Each structure stands twice: as structure tokens, then as C-alpha cells.
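Thread: Modeling a multi-component assembly for a lab meeting

Hi all, long-time lurker, first post. My supervisor asked me to bring a structural picture of a complex we are working on to next week's group meeting, and I have zero experience with this. I have the sequence lines for every component (228 residues in total). Could someone generate the structure of the whole assembly? Inputs are pasted exactly as I received them:
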Amino acid sequence: GESVGLHLPTLSVQEGDNSIINCAYSNSASDYFIWYKQESGKGPQFIIDIRSNMDKRQGQRVTVLLNKTVKHLSLQIAATQPGDSAVYFCAVEGSSASKIIFGSGTRLSIRP
Amino acid sequence: GAVVSQHPSRVICKSGTSVKIECRSLDFQATTMFWYRQFPKQSLMLMATSNEGSKATYEQGVEKDKFLINHASLTLSTLTVTSAHPEDSSFYICSAREPSGGREQFFGPGTRLTVL
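Re: Modeling a multi-component assembly
Sure thing. I ran the full set together rather than chain by chain. Output:
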């Protein structure tokens, strides 16, 4: 089955610095990967996604990198702001189409 | 992006009662909706996939007779927690996917259930 894990449960960064959140997955057949942001008491908010035919995708202040060789993806947030404080989840569309499996989450906190 | 709503946002009930949570896609039709449960400081765990006009598909370990799912229309899926107990207290979140859209799922704001 599919499993997704994160390397660090918490991450503290200085305001203005870049943040890097990592995620590992197990199923090499996975072909769709998503990063979500969840603030306290709210549902997940889509940040960025990437398909397996790409290794990098950029959005506004965010970049997702995918390394299929080692089954690893990362989320990079440039110039981290206080509003970026949240829990970040990577998610993988499992071997069964349309089912998304969530990783365990990384809490990002920002130091002023 | 597409909007998904949930109602209620928060509910407190007594042990043994049943609670119904609604998930609506507001500006699109969703043939498939998903129900997740999230305990404090944990990730989202998929409970079931709700298919319009057919029976829901439950994940392993999720009791279908306890968590009743009805997807009666293309914009509404309901989750009923029957005979709720304190261990059912959790954050329940639904999501929906646009049939003609990409693979992105749109999530509702969640429903906080507290069973006394």
C-alpha cells in the first residue's frame, strides 16, 4: 500500500528566510503529488501540485521538487512570512486512482 | 477555485446519539466526494469515498454501519455518525473533485465533533 512520511515534525525558521519541508513516499507508481497548508481549525488549503512527468514546479513564492529516483519531494517557501505559519502536508495519489494519502505533517513556525 | 462547504462547523452531542454532517459543492457538481477524519495533532485519514448514486467505498477499519454515507445528489454528501461515543470526537473533513477539472481535490472547512 501507499505510505507517506515526513522527515521532521516541526520546523522553525526566521522570518524572511527560506523554508524547506521534505516528504518521502513509498509507491513508485504514484504519479500525482500535492502540498497542502492547514491552519488551526480549518480544512487543508491547496498550495501546489506536481505530476510525475515533472521534477520541478513553481508557484508564487513556492516551489515543489520531485525526485522519483529516491521517492522524495520537497516544498520550498521563499521569504517566509508570519502568515506561512501552519501545518504542511504532502499528499500522494495512491495506486488506486483518485484516492489521496496524506503524510504526517510538518508544523512550520516563524521566528520574528 | 471551487468551493466546498460543510455544515455544521461545530457540533456537541451526547453519547449514544447520531450526528449528521453535510458536505456541499457550491459551484460545481461532484460525482465523487471524500470523507476524512483528523484527530488532534495528526494527519488526515481517509474514511470513505462517496459516489453519487451508489454505495460508498469504505477504507479498511472504518465501520460502514457506524459511519453512514449518503451521496444523493451531485452537490451533497452526508456523513452520519451513528450512536456516537467520546472516541468519535474528531475533526471531520470532506473534499470533492470536479469531474471536468484536473486531479485537484477541494476541501471543506471541516466539522468539529465533540461527543460528551
